[in-house]
Amino acid sequence: MNLLTEWLHTWRVPLLALLVLLSLGMAGPVLAQADPEGEIATAVPATDADTWRQVRSGETGPNYRDSRFDSNYNLINASGETWRQIRNRWVSPFGLIAICGMLAMIVLFYLIVGRKHLDEPRTGRKLLRWTALERSLHWSVATLFIILALTGLNLLYGKFLFKTLFGDAFWAGMISGSKMLHNYLGPLFGVLLVIILAKFLVRNLPSKHDWTWFKQGGGLIGKGRHPDAGFANGGEKVWYWLLATAGLVVIASGLVLDFPNYGQSRDAMQWANIVHAVGALGLTAVALGHIYIGTLGTEGSLEGMATGYVDETWAKEHHNLWYEEVKHQAADADETLGEESTPPQRSS
């Protein structure tokens, strides 16, 4: 025991010195890992400004490609930045200008001109204008359009308003619900829109008298009788063809975004997003005018889509050519209750 104790006392100092040297030797790598510059210098040599310039220039070699399977995108995707700039600098401001500008025009028009009332008293005799099927299609498409417009606007602008007002928790639930509604109701809207466009195609074919309707501003410019119009007037036909062109483009681009599992490239998704946003914002702005004219702006228009019937006076003033074709079917209001038949072929 005495010999062991003596040996430990003798070698204590050299052992402590050895332990200190070992700890200093291990501290070097640890400090190098704690130092970001040192770590980069050892893990990725020559990662300097010239290397990043190569990446930025579009180099897609194995050293500059992202790690996802079968990807040809480099570490810095210039097209993504282009998409972001177009969306934030052009699309978003354009949407606000278009929608707010339309709202301002409607308010000014209502304050200056007011509601368009019928020139003559109502006769009390009704004409069937919209069947139950047609009204169901219209209200279904209109309801879906409004939901998609509101959720789309929330996705684009909502964070600047609702997140600031109500905080992150409320905003998270709101944006999640908006995204789900938008993604799931979009395809349904597309199917119903195609059906309603096919059903109303013949009524919305262009006619010679449409040009006169536009020159007179639908009867707002000049004096005298209203311009000629068949079942659909010039303004209604414009709305129809906007839906048949821009509306179908919005649906197609939305499906590209809604189903990304069919091999779309990132570039295709980015351009589909831009096209979808521009088309949807433009249609939303025009839809505000359509909604105003069909409700508050024109006496008798809303009741036609609500009940299916319009007064003789309304038909004569707004759709005189159609009225001439169906005037023999006019009936007293009490006779039309519970009675609905398919209207005959109407003029364009």
Automatic annotation (TrEMBL):
Where in the cell does this protein reside? Cell membrane
Instruction: Kindly report the protein's main subcellular placement as a broad class.
Output: membrane
Give the membrane topology, semicolon-separated if more than one.
Multi-pass membrane protein
Tell me where in this chain the Cytochrome b561 bacterial/Ni-hydrogenase domain is found: 129-308
Q: SUPFAM superfamilies under this entry? A: Transmembrane di-heme cytochromes
Q: Does the keyword DNA-binding apply?
A: no
- Which regions span the lipid bilayer? 94-115, 136-154, 184-202, 238-259, 271-293
- What keywords sit in the KW lines? Cell membrane, Electron transport, Heme, Iron, Membrane, Metal-binding, Signal, Transmembrane, Transmembrane helix, Transport
| Cofactor(s) needed | heme
Asked if Metal-binding is a keyword of the record, the answer is: yes
**Signal peptide positions (record):** 1-32
Family stated for the protein in its record:
Belongs to the formate dehydrogenase gamma subunit family.
- NCBIfam families per UniProt: formate-DH-gamm
Q: What is this protein called?
A: Formate dehydrogenase subunit gamma
Species per Swiss-Prot/TrEMBL record = Litchfieldella qijiaojingensis
